[in-house]
Write a structure and sequence with these properties.
Blueprint: H1 19-24, H2 45-51, H3 56-60, H4 63-77, E1 82-83, H5 90-94, E2 99-102, E3 106-109, H6 131-144, E4 149-154, H7 156-165, H8 173-181, H9 183-207, E5 211-215, H10 224-230, H11 232-241, E6 249-252, H12 260-265, E7 270-272, H13 279-286, E8 291-296, H14 305-318, E9 325-329, H15 339-353
Parallel strand pairs: 1-4, 4-5, 5-6, 6-7, 7-8, 8-9
Antiparallel strand pairs: 2-3
Helix pairs in contact: 4-6, 6-9, 7-8, 7-9, 8-9, 9-11, 14-15
């Protein structure tokens, strides 16, 4: 079973009763749990030191390095969960897609997918393709003890946008052209990516991840109607594929205020909210039966302690009465963020919400 096993009759492991997993399950918590997207990364000097001279994709394939980077924010900030250090394109690289992560640019695909023949690039992902993930998670869970580890993957739409565009895009013109002009090809592309993504999450859960987050980073570029018709089925397939493990499933996207209800409908147990929508309004849009995650604007961390506490208090106030709340930023930690500001933020949330 999973690292989250409990009521099913399996022996629960150490993280099961953590504040983070309790909040995800919408159970009473001793304090509001905190973790940060991109907490393991460029804002930490210790991260820059261990990554020096090592490419991003290579870093993701070194289990000892992955362990160290994943643990760094847990040691420094005392967050309530670790998130596995990787990148959303790792499973694509693992099945042989010719891509690289270029500094200052992002993932760049050598041969973009533009035709049905191009789909042949997307073979099934096997556990052997990412054996370094299994090894790294084993190393991590041995050290994390009662601290949960969050696994993650990129959602089919976001992966498709990189594959079709050939890299990052502001307009998604090629991806949307396929979605509108070749809907059967688009559906087949997302269906294949759903299978790859689900396989990648299964590897992480079976190795010991206590929860998983599906990042649909670019879904905010879509209208609700387009999301429901052309994206939701693939994301729902991913969530359904891992439902039997019993681990909390988190769904997050940027600029997705109009999609929050649909993102929950796709199968998430926890819906991530960016900073644009207050949590009480997000709860209304998502509906009952889901926990929420978020949603302090990451730029507030540059404004000084008093401003951070004021804005954090606003987030906590709007979270009053939620079925479950995991405190996070409304997007990832920015590279130039002062690490001490994050440490103080964790302590502030813990102190203010102690029950």
């Amino acid at each position: 079973m999973s690292a989250n096993a409990g009521p099913s009759g399996h022996q629960p492991t150490a993280p099961y009763n953590s504040a983070f997993l309790k909040a995800c399950r919408r159970e009473p918590v001793p304090h509001t749990p905190v973790w940060f997207m991109r907490q393991a990364g460029r804002s930490l000097p210790e991260y820059l030191k261990v990554r020096e001279g090592i490419g991003m994709l290579e870093s993701c394939m070194r289990p000892e390095l992955v362990k160290e980077i994943t643990l760094q924010p847990v040691r420094r900030h005392h967050v309530d969960a670790a998130i596995y250090f990787s990148d959303i394109v790792v499973p694509l690289k693992a099945i042989g897609i010719d891509l690289d992560i270029k500094p200052g640019v992002g993932p760049v695909v050598e041969k973009p997918i533009r035709s049905r023949a191009d789909l042949a690039q997307l073979r099934d992902l096997t556990p052997e393709d990412v054996s370094y993930v299994t090894e790294a998670i084993g190393l991590l869970t041995a050290e994390l003890g009662e601290t949960p580890l969050i696994g993650f993957a990129g959602a089919p739409f976001t992966l498709a946008s990189y594959l079709v565009e050939g890299g990052p895009s502001r307009t998604y013109e090629n991806a949307k052209a396929m979605m509108y002009g070749a809907p059967e090809l688009w559906a087949d592309l997302l269906d294949r990516l759903a299978d790859i993504t689900a396989a990648f999450l299964k590897v992480q859960i079976e190795a010991g991840a206590s929860a998983v987050q599906l990042f649909d980073s670019w879904a905010g570029a879509l209208s609700p109607a387009d999301y429901r018709r052309s994206v939701l089925p693939a994301s729902a397939k991913v969530f359904e594929a891992v439902a039997g493990y019993g681990v909390p499933r988190i769904h997050f996207g940027v600029g997705t205020g109009e999609l929050l209800g649909l993102m929950g409908e796709a199968g998430a147990d926890v819906v991530g909210v960016d900073w644009r929508v207050p949590l009480d309004e997000a709860a209304r849009r998502v509906g009952p039966g889901k926990a929420l995650q978020g949603n302090l604007d990451p730029t507030v961390l540059f404004a000084g302690t008093e401003a951070v506490e004021t804005k954090t208090r606003e987030v906590l106030d709007t979270a009053t009465g939620l079925e479950g709340h995991v405190f996070n930023l409304g997007h990832g930690v920015m590279p130039s963020t002062d690490p001490d500001a994050l440490t103080r933020l964790v302590e502030y949330v813990h102190t203010q919400t102690a029950r």
